[in-house]
Amino acid sequence: MTEALVLDADAVLWSAERTALAGRHLLLLLHGYGADEHDLYPLRAYLPDDFVVASLAAPLVPPWPAPGRSWYPIDGLDGRDPSHVTRAAQAVLEWVDAHAGGAASVGLLGFSQGGAVSLQAMRLDAERFAYAVNLSGYATPGELPGDAALAERRPAVFWGRGTNDDVIPGFLVAHTTQWLPEHVELSGRVYQGLTHSVSEVELADVRGFLEKQLEELRSDSAG
C-alpha cells in the first residue's frame, strides 16, 4: 500500500493568527510544480480582505535540479498518474480536518498542479469546500466515487487559462473543458496571449469571483 502524504503544518503561511480563524472564511492557496508556500502568498494583496489566507506547501520534492516542491510526479512512467493527484488531494483534506476547524467556510485557489489538486479535493468530498479557483490547471481524467455528489451540488469554480500556455497538454485542456460544466457551476476566462502564468487582469476577475462567493456565503448564513 502506498504511504499517505502528510502536509507540513509548520510550512504553512497564514495571513492571520490561527486563533482568529473561528467564524471566518478560509482560503487555501496551493502552488504549482517547483514552487513552494511562498509563491502564491503575495496574491493575498489582490484578494478580498475578509479571507484568512493559508498558503500550503506541497509534500514532495521534485527530481533534481527542479527547485521547490510538488504535489505529484509529472516525470517518468507514472507521471500525471491520477492516483497521485488523488493522494495529494487526500492530504489536503486531512490538513483541513486537522487545522481548519471553526472556519465559516473553506475555499481553494490553486495554480497548475495546485489547481488540479484543488478540483480533486472537491471530488473527494463535495461538501467540504465552498468553491475553487483553478488557475492554469485542469481536471484529472478518470472517475471518482464522489463525482455524482459533486455534480448534484455543483459548487462554483473559476477556471482561468492562457491561449499561449504550452505547459498543460492539450488533451487535458480538452478534457477539462468538457468535464467542468458537467460537474460544477463554471465561470472563468481564456486570456489572450497569457502563458503558463497569472496576469493582473486575471487576478481582477478572481477577486470579483471571490467577492461573489462571499456575498452568497453571507446570504446563506443570514438565511
Secondary structure elements and their pairing?
Blueprint: E1 13-14, E2 25-30, E3 51-56, H1 82-99, E4 105-111, H2 113-124, E5 131-135, H3 147-153, E6 156-162, H4 170-183, E7 185-191, H5 200-222
Parallel strand pairs: 2-3, 2-4, 4-5, 5-6, 6-7
Antiparallel strand pairs: 1-3
Helix pairs in contact: 1-2
Task: Give a structural overview.
The chain has one domain: Rossmann fold (3-Layer(aba) Sandwich), CATH 3.40.50.1820. The longest helix has 23 residues, at 200-222. Strands 1-3-2-4-5-6-7 form a 7-stranded mixed β-sheet, with helices on both faces. With 223 residues, it is an alpha/beta fold. The N and C termini lie far apart (46 Å). The chain is built from 5 helices and 7 strands; from the N terminus they run βββαβαβαβαβα. It is globular and about 50 Å long.
Q: The CATH topology, please? A: Rossmann fold
CATH class: Alpha Beta
Distance between the termini: 46 Å
Q: Which parts are unreliable, with pLDDT below 50 for 5 consecutive residues or more?
A: none
Strand order of the largest sheet: 1-3-2-4-5-6-7
What letter string, H or E per element, gives the SSE order?
EEEHEHEHEHEH
Which geometry do the CA atoms define?
Answer: globular
Q: Assembly type of the shown chains?
A: single chain
Number of H- or I-type helical stretches: 5
Strand proportion, as a percent range, falls in 15-25%
Number of strands: 7
CATH superfamily: Alpha/Beta hydrolase fold, catalytic domain
Pfam families: Abhydrolase_2 (PF02230)
Organism: Microbacterium arthrosphaerae
Family: Belongs to the AB hydrolase superfamily. AB hydrolase 2 family.
GO molecular function: hydrolase activity
